[in-house]
Amino acid sequence: MDLSRLLSDDVIEEYLGSGPTLVWLLVVNATAFLVGIRFYVETMPSVPTFLWPLYGDSPTALALATLSFATLLPALGGRVLDSPINRPLTYLHTLSFVWLVKYGLWTFVALNLHPELYFGFDQQALYDYWFIVGTHLLFVLEAVAIARVGRTTRGALGFALALLLVNDVFDYWFGFHPPLRYTPGLLLAAVTVGLSFVAVACAGFAFSPTVVRTE
After folding, report:
1. How many separate domains does the chain show?
2. How far apart, in whole angstroms, are the C-alpha atoms of residue 31 and residue 42?
3. How would you label 61-84 residue by residue, b for 16+ Cβ within 10 Å and e otherwise?
4. Which of 48, 100, 101, 185 is the most buried (most CB within 10 A)?
5. Spatial separation of the C-alpha atoms in residues 65 and 27, rounded to whole Å
6. CA-CA distances (angstroms) from residue 168 to 56, 64, 68, 76, 146?
7. Per-residue pLDDT tens digits for 4-54
8. Which pTM does this prediction carry?
Protein backbone atom coordinates (compact mmCIF):
# COMPACT_ATOMS: atom_id res chain seq x y z
CA MET A 1 0.00 0.00 0.00
CA ASP A 2 1.57 3.27 -1.14
CA LEU A 3 0.09 5.90 1.16
CA SER A 4 2.05 8.62 -0.63
CA ARG A 5 -0.24 8.32 -3.65
CA LEU A 6 -3.17 9.70 -1.64
CA LEU A 7 -1.92 13.10 -2.87
CA SER A 8 -1.06 13.36 -6.55
CA ASP A 9 2.03 15.05 -7.94
CA ASP A 10 -0.12 17.86 -9.32
CA VAL A 11 -1.70 18.55 -5.91
CA ILE A 12 1.68 18.59 -4.20
CA GLU A 13 3.20 20.94 -6.77
CA GLU A 14 0.17 23.23 -6.73
CA TYR A 15 -0.01 23.63 -2.98
CA LEU A 16 3.52 23.08 -1.69
CA GLY A 17 5.33 24.40 -4.75
CA SER A 18 3.52 27.73 -4.70
CA GLY A 19 4.85 30.52 -2.50
CA PRO A 20 1.48 31.95 -1.34
CA THR A 21 -0.05 28.58 -0.46
CA LEU A 22 3.10 27.29 1.23
CA VAL A 23 3.39 30.45 3.35
CA TRP A 24 -0.32 30.20 4.15
CA LEU A 25 0.22 26.62 5.33
CA LEU A 26 3.14 27.70 7.51
CA VAL A 27 1.05 30.46 9.09
CA VAL A 28 -1.87 28.10 9.74
CA ASN A 29 0.42 25.52 11.33
CA ALA A 30 2.15 28.12 13.48
CA THR A 31 -1.23 29.44 14.64
CA ALA A 32 -2.45 25.91 15.39
CA PHE A 33 0.74 25.35 17.38
CA LEU A 34 -0.04 28.36 19.57
CA VAL A 35 -3.64 27.17 20.04
CA GLY A 36 -2.32 23.76 21.06
CA ILE A 37 0.13 25.26 23.54
CA ARG A 38 -2.78 27.10 25.17
CA PHE A 39 -4.35 23.70 25.93
CA TYR A 40 -1.26 22.73 27.93
CA VAL A 41 -0.25 26.07 29.39
CA GLU A 42 -1.96 25.66 32.78
CA THR A 43 -0.20 22.38 33.50
CA MET A 44 3.16 23.08 31.86
CA PRO A 45 4.75 24.70 34.97
CA SER A 46 4.69 21.27 36.68
CA VAL A 47 6.79 19.80 33.88
CA PRO A 48 10.54 20.50 33.53
CA THR A 49 11.02 22.98 30.71
CA PHE A 50 13.36 20.80 28.64
CA LEU A 51 10.70 18.05 28.66
CA TRP A 52 7.94 20.24 27.19
CA PRO A 53 8.43 18.77 23.67
CA LEU A 54 7.52 15.35 25.11
CA TYR A 55 4.61 16.75 27.10
CA GLY A 56 2.98 18.84 24.37
CA ASP A 57 2.27 15.96 22.00
CA SER A 58 0.13 17.68 19.36
CA PRO A 59 2.00 21.02 19.49
CA THR A 60 5.24 19.09 19.01
CA ALA A 61 3.76 17.39 15.94
CA LEU A 62 2.77 20.78 14.53
CA ALA A 63 6.17 22.29 15.29
CA LEU A 64 7.93 19.44 13.48
CA ALA A 65 5.54 19.71 10.53
CA THR A 66 6.11 23.46 10.29
CA LEU A 67 9.86 22.90 10.18
CA SER A 68 9.44 20.24 7.49
CA PHE A 69 7.33 22.49 5.31
CA ALA A 70 9.69 25.44 5.89
CA THR A 71 12.54 23.43 4.35
CA LEU A 72 10.65 23.64 1.05
CA LEU A 73 10.96 27.43 0.84
CA PRO A 74 14.33 27.31 -1.00
CA ALA A 75 12.74 24.98 -3.59
CA LEU A 76 10.11 27.52 -4.65
CA GLY A 77 10.44 28.30 -8.32
CA GLY A 78 11.41 24.74 -9.13
CA ARG A 79 9.85 21.31 -8.80
CA VAL A 80 9.18 20.80 -5.10
CA LEU A 81 9.04 17.01 -5.49
CA ASP A 82 12.69 17.15 -6.52
CA SER A 83 13.80 19.13 -3.48
CA PRO A 84 17.31 18.22 -2.29
CA ILE A 85 17.43 15.76 0.60
CA ASN A 86 20.19 15.12 3.12
CA ARG A 87 20.41 12.95 6.22
CA PRO A 88 19.21 15.59 8.74
CA LEU A 89 16.18 16.24 6.54
CA THR A 90 15.31 12.54 6.37
CA TYR A 91 15.22 12.45 10.17
CA LEU A 92 13.18 15.65 10.38
CA HIS A 93 10.62 14.50 7.80
CA THR A 94 10.34 11.08 9.42
CA LEU A 95 9.79 12.54 12.89
CA SER A 96 7.24 14.97 11.50
CA PHE A 97 5.34 12.17 9.81
CA VAL A 98 5.18 9.81 12.78
CA TRP A 99 4.27 12.52 15.29
CA LEU A 100 1.48 13.79 13.04
CA VAL A 101 0.04 10.34 12.38
CA LYS A 102 0.29 9.14 15.95
CA TYR A 103 -1.24 12.15 17.65
CA GLY A 104 -3.77 12.77 14.92
CA LEU A 105 -5.14 9.28 15.53
CA TRP A 106 -4.49 9.33 19.30
CA THR A 107 -6.77 12.32 19.81
CA PHE A 108 -9.63 10.58 18.00
CA VAL A 109 -9.16 7.45 20.11
CA ALA A 110 -8.70 9.26 23.43
CA LEU A 111 -11.85 11.34 23.08
CA ASN A 112 -13.93 8.38 21.93
CA LEU A 113 -12.89 6.07 24.75
CA HIS A 114 -15.22 8.15 26.94
CA PRO A 115 -17.60 9.82 24.47
CA GLU A 116 -20.01 10.74 27.27
CA LEU A 117 -17.43 13.32 28.40
CA TYR A 118 -16.86 14.88 24.98
CA PHE A 119 -19.38 13.91 22.32
CA GLY A 120 -22.38 16.13 21.69
CA PHE A 121 -23.85 18.84 19.52
CA ASP A 122 -24.02 21.77 21.92
CA GLN A 123 -21.79 24.81 21.53
CA GLN A 124 -19.08 23.48 23.82
CA ALA A 125 -18.97 20.07 22.13
CA LEU A 126 -18.61 21.72 18.73
CA TYR A 127 -15.13 22.79 19.81
CA ASP A 128 -14.21 20.22 22.47
CA TYR A 129 -15.08 17.28 20.23
CA TRP A 130 -15.85 18.02 16.58
CA PHE A 131 -13.31 20.79 16.00
CA ILE A 132 -10.51 19.03 17.90
CA VAL A 133 -11.14 15.65 16.29
CA GLY A 134 -11.50 17.17 12.81
CA THR A 135 -8.34 19.26 12.99
CA HIS A 136 -6.30 16.40 14.42
CA LEU A 137 -7.38 14.04 11.66
CA LEU A 138 -6.00 16.63 9.23
CA PHE A 139 -2.61 15.85 10.80
CA VAL A 140 -2.66 12.62 8.80
CA LEU A 141 -3.13 14.52 5.53
CA GLU A 142 -0.19 16.76 6.37
CA ALA A 143 1.88 13.68 7.15
CA VAL A 144 1.12 12.25 3.71
CA ALA A 145 2.14 15.56 2.11
CA ILE A 146 5.46 15.43 3.97
CA ALA A 147 6.02 11.86 2.78
CA ARG A 148 5.52 13.00 -0.81
CA VAL A 149 8.30 15.59 -0.61
CA GLY A 150 10.54 13.90 1.94
CA ARG A 151 12.63 10.78 2.31
CA THR A 152 13.33 8.35 5.10
CA THR A 153 15.87 5.67 6.01
CA ARG A 154 15.80 2.63 8.23
CA GLY A 155 17.91 4.53 10.73
CA ALA A 156 15.42 7.40 10.79
CA LEU A 157 12.51 4.99 11.24
CA GLY A 158 14.25 3.24 14.13
CA PHE A 159 15.14 6.55 15.75
CA ALA A 160 11.54 7.75 15.41
CA LEU A 161 10.18 4.59 17.01
CA ALA A 162 12.61 4.88 19.91
CA LEU A 163 11.59 8.49 20.55
CA LEU A 164 7.89 7.66 20.36
CA LEU A 165 8.31 4.87 22.92
CA VAL A 166 10.30 7.20 25.20
CA ASN A 167 7.40 9.63 24.90
CA ASP A 168 4.95 6.87 25.86
CA VAL A 169 6.97 6.03 28.98
CA PHE A 170 7.08 9.72 29.86
CA ASP A 171 3.31 10.06 29.39
CA TYR A 172 2.04 6.95 31.16
CA TRP A 173 4.81 5.66 33.42
CA PHE A 174 5.63 9.08 34.85
CA GLY A 175 2.10 10.45 34.47
CA PHE A 176 2.74 13.35 32.09
CA HIS A 177 0.02 12.40 29.60
CA PRO A 178 -2.02 15.18 27.92
CA PRO A 179 -4.76 16.69 30.08
CA LEU A 180 -7.98 14.71 29.75
CA ARG A 181 -11.38 14.72 31.45
CA TYR A 182 -10.71 11.23 32.77
CA THR A 183 -7.79 9.33 34.24
CA PRO A 184 -6.14 7.23 31.53
CA GLY A 185 -6.06 3.54 32.26
CA LEU A 186 -4.17 0.59 30.86
CA LEU A 187 -6.31 0.55 27.70
CA LEU A 188 -5.31 4.05 26.57
CA ALA A 189 -1.68 3.40 27.47
CA ALA A 190 -1.68 0.20 25.42
CA VAL A 191 -3.39 1.90 22.48
CA THR A 192 -0.83 4.71 22.62
CA VAL A 193 2.09 2.29 22.46
CA GLY A 194 0.35 0.48 19.61
CA LEU A 195 -0.03 3.75 17.73
CA SER A 196 3.72 4.30 18.01
CA PHE A 197 4.29 1.14 15.99
CA VAL A 198 1.43 1.96 13.62
CA ALA A 199 2.84 5.43 12.90
CA VAL A 200 6.29 4.08 12.10
CA ALA A 201 4.84 1.30 9.95
CA CYS A 202 2.81 3.90 8.04
CA ALA A 203 5.98 5.91 7.50
CA GLY A 204 7.63 2.85 6.01
CA PHE A 205 4.77 2.57 3.52
CA ALA A 206 4.22 6.27 2.84
CA PHE A 207 7.79 7.17 1.97
CA SER A 208 8.64 5.52 -1.33
CA PRO A 209 10.33 2.14 -0.73
CA THR A 210 12.96 2.98 -3.32
CA VAL A 211 14.36 5.67 -1.03
CA VAL A 212 14.25 3.80 2.27
CA ARG A 213 17.95 3.03 2.48
CA THR A 214 20.13 1.23 5.02
CA GLU A 215 22.50 3.60 6.80
Report:
1. 1
2. 19
3. bbbbbbbbbbbbeebeeeebeebe
4. 100
5. 12
6. 12, 18, 23, 37, 24
7. 566 788 888 888 988 899 999 999 999 999 999 988 888 888 888 888 888
8. 0.91
